[in-house]
Design goal:
- With 279 residues, the protein is an alpha/beta fold.
- Helices cover 45% and strands 13% of the residues.
- It is built from 9 helices and 7 strands, in the order βαβαβαβαβαβαβααα.
Length: 279
């Protein structure tokens, strides 16, 4: 067990599964007191019980500003003032641009973007009077590059990147830290049916969790996972657009998500991500 984050209170949204659950476990192992917020409370409770320590599971619908406020109230009444708030909840339904349902578009932005904004603002209001705090927003390498089959998802994550940069510019001088975490393809339910790309292999939730822990221990704004993704993306963006597109095609970005859309192993996730599992 580590002790780099002993008694730090950390709240994570959408942490019942995937990257959020792995992050909750990694932070707990470093001594943090972690609150898991998730719309699926049973899953969150099972995850908290497995992790142990002071980990608590609380109900949270990130699309409701009221629910976000109630979640933060419950965290602070149970564990103490929030030191780090991690906007992790996100969905990635895949669809060709012209086939995407309007309701799914709204849902992607509600969960991936507006919820991040609500969470950032609400956490900052609690942290500013203390003159310290750290807000970690989970974006994606897809927020730096448009990918066929996931245009809306890419747009929602690009908004996370730009919003966090703007919030940093305003609030960092007042004592708040910000981190934008940009994982590549990560082996969770969210990427069911998505295969590895040449030169850009999938990573594990644990590797993302380790990068988040490192950023909490020693804050920095941009966190790419793997680290090699940062230089690759930044250099590609400096190239003429057609050259960057050609390089992307050689890596498979023109079809990696398109090919996954109809794969049967993705159907259960798509139903949950789009909300069809409750219809």
């Amino acid at each position: 067990m580590g002790n780099r984050l002993t008694d730090r209170v950390i709240a994570i949204t959408g942490a019942g599964r995937g990257i959020g659950a792995a992050t909750a476990e990694a932070l707990t192992q470093e001594g943090a007191r972690v609150a898991i917020g998730d719309v699926d409370l049973d899953v969150a409770k099972a995850t908290a019980e497995r992790i142990g320590g002071d980990t608590v599971a609380l109900p949270l619908d990130v699309t409701s500003a009221e629910s976000v406020a109630e979640f933060m109230d419950a965290v602070e009444s149970t564990l103490g003032p929030i030191d780090v708030y991690i906007n992790n909840a996100g969905v990635m339904p895949l669809s060709p641009v012209l086939d995407e349902d309007d309701a799914v578009i709204d849902r992607i932005f509600a969960i991936n973007t507006r919820a991040m904004i609500h969470g950032t603002r609400a956490a900052a209001r609690r942290m500013l009077p203390r003159g310290r705090g750290h807000i970690v927003n989970i974006a994606s390498t897809a927020g730096k590059a448009g990918i066929a089959g996931s245009a809306t998802y890419c747009a929602s994550k690009a908004a996370v990147v730009q919003y966090t940069e703007g919030a940093y510019a305003e609030l960092h001088p007042h004592g708040l830290e910000f981190s934008i975490v940009m994982p590549g393809i990560t082996r969770t339910e969210l990427t069911s049916g998505v295969v590895d790309m040449p030169g850009f292999r999938a990573i594990t939730p644990q590797s993302v969790a380790d990068a988040i822990v490192a950023a909490v221990v020693k804050p920095r704004l941009e966190v790419y996972v793997p680290k090699s993704a940062g230089p690759l993306i930044n250099v590609t963006r400096l190239l003429p657009f057609r050259v960057g597109q050609a390089l992307g095609r050689r890596m498979g970005v023109d079809h990696v998500f398109m090919d996954a859309i109809e794969r049967p192993e993705r159907s259960a996730y798509e139903a949950r991500a789009t909300g069809r599992d409750h219809e």
